[in-house]
Amino acid sequence: MPSGVSIAKDTVKKDLKTDSKAENKLLDSITQKPYFNAENFVLYQADSLKILEQLPENSIDMIFADPPYNLSNGGFTVHAGKRVSVNKGDWDVSKGVLEDFNFHLKWIKACKRVLKPEGTIWVSGTYHSIFACGYALQFSGYKILNDIAWFKPNGSPNLSGRYFTASHETLIWARKAKEGRHKFDYKLMKEGSWPEDDFKKPGKQMRSVWSLNTPKNGEKKFGKHPTQKPVDLLKRVVLASTDKNDIILDPFTGSSTTGLAALDYDRKFIGIDLEKDYLDLSIKRYRDRFEGRLL
User: Fold this and answer.
1) Which of the four pLDDT bands, split at 50, 70 and 90, describes residue 185?
2) Which of 235, 268, 282, 292 lies at a C-alpha separation of 20 to 30 Å from 248?
3) Which numeric CATH code is attached to 9-289?
4) What is the 3-state secondary structure (H, E, C) of 60-81?
């Protein structure tokens, strides 16, 4: 837990209910009933485009998106010392360069409409998808602020011996408006204590390479999403680019690590996913972490 952060996960209080009328008004614009609705944590089982088109323009403070990587191609990798398939499901199969790009362009444009003018979006991916996402962001008129290299010290080895071992993912951080100011807690990023990251030196500016392990075993005790992100990664994203009571949206929520980090620090969360199993996993994680403390 970084020092200088006043709200830790075990001390989240009822003040998360503040400003709930505004949030309810926002959700009133969505005709579909939520799959799960708790205080400041709402999940929808739907195509994200259908939910995004119903949200009011300029209503979301920050979006974190971890879209399909389109890497399910029959190959293999290593997990826990065992050879396993890289196939994640039909949702992760590439439909070709042009169709994959058009998919990214559609959801990225839809996200831009709902972001506030000063709002920002984070997009995570591997080389299979991140370049298409980056071009789609530029094509849609976003201002790219940073690209972050998330280095994984415990990343999986390469089996074939024909490539460099993939040990990082890229996050692109972009602002909706070309001009203007966006939220960035420079002081916390510089002066906070980040013991989970060997690259971050005390009192020095936080750089664009982050060294963070993949999710800890306890983060997967109810099951796992194949591209699940560590809570430490999302905490840093949330703390860097949002304020208390901001509304954060994840259009490919998966197991909702984004939502857990949002609630840890008094933000509000909307998650969307097509897969019921992942939403059920999200609910288990939410209940284990927060139920009985928020309401």
Assistant:
1) very high
2) 292
3) 3.40.50.150
4) EEEEEECCCCCCCCCCEEEECC
